[in-house]
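Pilot study result, target chain (165 residues):
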Amino acid sequence: MNETLEMLGIQWQKLIIQLICFSVMLLVLKRFAFKPVFTILEARKAKIAEGMANAEKISSQLAQTESARQKILTDAGELANKIIADARAAASRVTELESQKAITVAEQIIAKAREAAAQERAATLAELKREVGRLVVQTTMTVTGKVLTTEDQTRLAAETQKQLS
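Predicted structure:
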């Protein structure tokens, strides 16, 4: 085997020294280079995992916030519809109340107008009776051709009013 190695140009002593140097170099690299690099890689891996967990957490919080927002919007819409319905009902009640007040006022105005018309009619009738009485007295004076006394005029006016009533 010695001969084969020598044909290849390999010397035992140099090979062993190179293997020792390589082993020492491997140990030094492992201790001072690979270990810190692996530590950095592990820390980076942990940060990435933490970032992924945070992203999932944020995603779930976003979904919860979105569902809460939708619920709030739905509740606000229902509340707005309820307020609108209440406002319409209140407006309807106010309209009905105002209509009733207007009807009452109109009925009062009509009653007052009827009362005023009745009073006016009574006053007109009384005036008419007086005028008819005066005309009867005047006509009687003209037809008879004599001047009637105050007593006669009063008596004729009273009789005329009695007959008109």
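One observation from the pilot: The chain is about 95% helix and 0% strand. A full batch analysis is planned for the follow-on phase.
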